[in-house]
Amino acid sequence: MSLSNIRVVLMHPTHPGNIGAAARAMRNMGLRRLVLVAPSGFPHPEARARAAGADDVLDGAVVCGSLEQAVAGCQLVVGTSARTRSIAWPSLDPRSAAARLVGEALQGEVALVFGAERTGLTNEQLDRCHYTVYIPADPEFSSLNLACAVQVMAYEVWCAAAQSAASAPQNVGTDAGAQAASSADLERFYVHLEEVLVAIRFLDPANPRKLMRRLIRLFNRSRPDNNELNILRGILTAVQQSQTPAIFDKIPRESQN
Ligand code: SAH
After folding, report:
1. CATH 1.10.8.590 residue window(s) in the chain
2. Which end of the chain, C or N, has fewer beta carbons within 10 A?
């Protein structure tokens, strides 16, 4: 079974020990690709000690500056959260999330994202996730240690991979041959969409957050493929062109006929 298309992203981990323990948890379950977004201390001897031999995961860890960079090229991004929020993001239980990650990893890159120890994932970071996952726990004490959360999810991924090894790739609901749009392409689409919504005065730039969040949630839920995204981008461009003074306005009337 190949888990090489699955990356584990730790957002702003503050304790080097947790990075090491997460690396160990990953390696136990066949995951090797670790991405660290702005870690407080890395590399660090404590990370090395807690990795207990999973040195290849630490040595191969990619350090970057933002979630966007961390999930670049991913067609599926799953965020984990110990909290319930006012605007509910599409969610999956750990087992279904793992099955989906493993299924889509047969076709392209996918990411499993974890928040910082103290703050968890911000709303803006969750906006970039197609799904959120909550590991069921005592509601009065539901926040797991970061590396423990990685362990639970990595175990589910291992089990899902073992189960899917013999079965056919999952149908993710896109046209045959069409690939789900990557995070970077979706990101560009959201920027374009916001630009057009402001231009047609549907979106007030003074108060843009909630509308864009809801729209991003809608598109994340529908998981457009590349062809569909091209159609949407084409529509936005057509709207922009219809906004600019028509070229015909500048052409003498008689030559328009
Ligand atoms: N105080 C933070 C908890 C951070 S724990 C908060 O309230 O969100 C660090 C990370 O571990 C979380 O961001 C999440 O990625 C993961 N995690 C911890 N407990 C979890 C749970 N019950 N379900 C899913 N992820 C969890």
Report:
1. 183-250
2. C
